[in-house]
Amino acid sequence: MKIADIYKSKSLTTSFEVFPPNEKVGLEEVYNCLDVLSLEKPDYISVTYGAGGNTKGRTVEIANRIKSQNGVESVAHFTCIGSKKEEIDRVLEDLERNNIENILALRGDYPVDRELELGDFNYARDLINYIHEKKGDKFSIGAAYYVEGHRETNDLLDLFYLKEKVNAGVDFLISQIFLDNEFFYSFRDKLEKLQINVPLVAGIMPVTNAKQIKKITSLCSCTIPKKFLKILEKYEDNPSALREAGLAYAIEQVVDLVASDINGIHLYTMNKPETAKKIIDATGIIRK
Ligand code: FAD
């Protein structure tokens, strides 16, 4: 099923993100994670692409498994930076062969440790245009957004480029992690004024250890609210209390977003299904 059709019939979706393990590691762990997550009956599960290593080949395989064995709709992330059209064509064929109907179209990040080969695409918008050009409406396409702005561009320009990206043919948007819902609400107001009317999904990451917070701040410009800093300071030497406090914080964030008519909650599971399950149970966002 296409994600665009899910949003036509539902006012609130719940979805999960998993990532493919490094190629040296087997797929059992992520498959075990998917077996637990699928019992929660999410609307879809997305699989990242190439982030943090050479795992591109596994995204389609895992997305196929989610659909065929877990009986859950899947979304394959797909980055274009440094790729030639031939590689993009190959992946599109692979997605089609595997019956994947949904793509999260992304630019990707410039690697910090090596030079990137010159590709045929500069921005996610170019990939979205290309997929529509080659495949028409074969895929439902989602894209990324940043409630605190993308770190490479000023906020106003970023909004302009987001509108361009959505106009290229995007059915839904999933956000980068944020820890302060106020950023989301003010961003949503701006999109409304710009008549960007696609479903906005909130990407929520339960921060359950100190390592995660370092990763978040290094990967994206996410403000750490005072309230959250206090939690980190108070429980820095008590990992289990930090885990519980981080979970409670994410639950509060989700409850507040749902009460404010968010279109979807997308949980970054980090391949740890127990935390996602606790959030589902505590918030009741999936009626089973
Ligand atoms: P774009 O929309 O192309 O924007 C990138 C930057 O370019 C922005 O600053 C934008 O304002 C600017 N820009 C856009 N168009 C133009 C233009 N025409 N001219 C000048 N500037 C322009 N990364 C991975 O490697 N794999 C993943 O699986 C993955 N999944 C993600 C999932 C989500 C929900 C999110 C939010 C991010 C994900 N990322 C992933 C990270 C993503 O690749 C990076 O955040 C990347 O820096 C930007 O990708 P984008 O698709 O938003 O880029």
Report on this structure:
It is a single chain. With 288 residues, the chain is an alpha/beta fold. It has one domain: TIM Barrel (Alpha-Beta Barrel), CATH 3.20.20.220. Helices cover 47% and strands 14% of the residues. It has helices at 3-9, 28-39, 56-68, 85-97, 124-135, 155-167, 181-193, 210-219, 226-234, 239-259, 273-283, and strands at residues 13-18, 44-47, 74-79, 102-106, 140-145, 172-175, 200-204, 264-268. The protein has an eight-stranded parallel β-barrel with strand order 1-2-3-4-5-6-7-8, surrounded by six helices. Strand 3, helix 4 (85-97) and strand 4 (102-106) form a beta-alpha-beta unit. Helix 2 (28-39) packs parallel to helix 11 (273-283), helix 5 packs parallel to helix 6 and helix 9 (226-234) packs antiparallel against helix 10. 41% of the residues are buried.
Shape: globular
Q: How widely separated are the two ends? A: 20 Å
Low-confidence parts, pLDDT < 50 over ≥5 residues? none
CATH topology: TIM Barrel
Please tell me the overall pLDDT.
94
Number of helices: 11
CATH C-level class is Alpha Beta
Percent range for helical residues?
40-55%
Gyration radius, in Å: 18 Å
Heteromolecules bound: flavin-adenine dinucleotide
Strand order of the largest sheet: 1-2-3-4-5-6-7-8
Structural class of the secondary elements? alpha/beta
Annotated CATH architecture: Alpha-Beta Barrel
State the total count of DSSP E strands. 8
Run of helices and strands? HEHEHEHEHEHEHEHHHEH
- Strand portion, in percent? 5-15%
Largest sheet: 8 strands, parallel, barrel
- Structural domain count: 1
Keywords: Amino-acid biosynthesis, FAD, Flavoprotein, Methionine biosynthesis, NAD, Oxidoreductase
GO molecular function, one term: FAD binding
GO cellular component, one term: cytosol
Catalytic activity: (6S)-5-methyl-5,6,7,8-tetrahydrofolate + NAD(+) = (6R)-5,10-methylene-5,6,7,8-tetrahydrofolate + NADH + H(+)
